[in-house]
Automatic annotation (TrEMBL):
Any one Pfam family match given in the protein's UniProt record, by short name: PK_Tyr_Ser-Thr
Binding locations of ATP: K100
EC number of the protein: 2.7.10.2
Protein name: non-specific protein-tyrosine kinase
Catalyzed reactions per annotation: L-tyrosyl-[protein] + ATP = O-phospho-L-tyrosyl-[protein] + ADP + H(+)
Keyword presence, Signal: no
Native species: Petrolisthes cinctipes
UniProt GO BP: actin cytoskeleton organization; morphogenesis of an epithelium; salivary gland morphogenesis
Keyword Zinc attached: no
Gene3D superfamilies according to UniProt: SH2 domain, Transferase(Phosphotransferase) domain 1
Domain Protein kinase per the UniProt entry, residue ranges: 73-322
Segments forming domain SH2: 1-48
């Protein structure tokens, strides 16, 4: 019986508002199933359906395909430094990898893990690949593919590699532009693009790495917190002056990276302190053309260093220019 209040008499019998009481509920239901009863306005014909218990249970959080047990990773010797931590060589399931660790006091654990979260969604031949993460216990680890020839900056400065020629310069920066064009399409700002953050593999293979400062550009620009520190020689003037980063800020940094490549790894703005660099750029001056830099490459660099961000080229257009220029100079030597 549903929607009717069943009462009890002092003697424990059951009734529904009428004068007649019943010893059991079954007796009452049998009586109310007979046509002509007056206790209620309807005839009882069939029992109410009891709702079935729900079979829906709380689902466990989706499994992170990148998360691995610490026991699967063998941490080896330190091979370098990132923006906020050390980099070690190591193995993951017998495969050689590079392992990034968080250096104490440089950034929060949450910020460190943001780098891994960003890298999980990046798939491009000129972007370093995320292999795994260890985030269930500390210290947290980010495991990336191992690039045997190390950072581009070190490669450029290593005399054992010999002197690179113009076709090599174009091939290297063309790959970086391709990787950055992909980030541009993903609306992702790197914010620390420099030769030190590009990794090298066999045959001058290049991959953009170190996403510790990377941010998704949901709006037109990204404003950093007051007091944040920047690599002044690589950072666009609007980012230094107003703390506003856009994807076009990375284009400025790319122009500085091209300078590093064509100059054999020279420090940008040689002989100047950081304050002098800022004043030099603010007054409209730019780095002069290196002696071993082709005129078309230098003109491209100057376009990257336009004062107004919206005038600077996109990475897609830079990639197209470099591919065409590579074809014009007949570059086919990649080793």
């Amino acid at each position: 019986v549903k929607h009717f209040h069943i009462s009890n008499t002092p003697g424990g019998m059951y009734y529904l508002g009428g004068d007649r009481a019943f010893h059991t509920l079954n007796d009452m239901i049998d009586h109310l199933s007979i046509p002509g009863t007056s206790e209620i306005s309807i005839l009882l014909q069939r029992p109410c359906r009891r709702p079935l218990p729900s079979t829906v249970t709380a689902l466990p959080p989706p499994e992170d395909k990148f998360e691995v047990d610490r026991d699967e990773i063998v941490l080896g010797a330190k091979i370098g430094n990132g923006s906020f931590g050390d980099v070690h060589i190591g193995t993951l399931k017998d495969v050689k990898v590079a392992i990034k660790t968080l250096r104490s006091g440089t950034m929060s654990k949450t910020q460190f893990l943001e780098e891994a979260q960003i890298m999980k969604n990046l798939i491009h031949p000129n972007i370093v690949t995320l292999e795994a993460v260890c985030t269930l216990i500390e210290p947290f680890l980010i495991v990336i593919e191992y690039m045997p020839d190390g950072a581009l900056l070190d490669y450029l400065r290593d005399e054992n590699h010999g002197q690179l020629e113009v076709p090599h310069h174009v091939y290297i920066v063309s790959q970086v532009a391709a990787g950055m064009a992909y980030l541009e399409e993903m609306r992702l700002m790197h914010r620390d693009l420099a030769a030190r953050n590009v990794l090298m593999g066999p045959s001058l293979q290049c991959k953009v790495a170190d996403f510790g400062l990377a941010r998704i550009c949901d709006n037109e620009y990204y404003v950093v917190k007051e007091g944040a520190k920047f690599p002044v020689r690589w950072t666009a003037p609007e980012a230094i002056t107003h703390q506003k980063f856009t994807i076009k800020s990375d284009v400025w940094s790319f122009g500085i990276l091209v300078y590093e490549v064509v100059s054999g790894g020279a420090i940008p703005y040689p002989g100047m302190e950081n304050k002098e660099v800022m004043e030099f750029v603010a007054s409209g001056h730019r780095i002069s053309q290196p002696s071993r830099c082709d005129q078309p490459l230098y003109e491209m660099m100057l376009q990257c260093w336009e004062e107004l961000p919206h005038i600077r080229p996109t990475f897609v257009s830079l990639q197209d220019f470099l591919r065409n220029y590579e074809a014009q100079i007949g570059s086919s030597y990649y080793a």
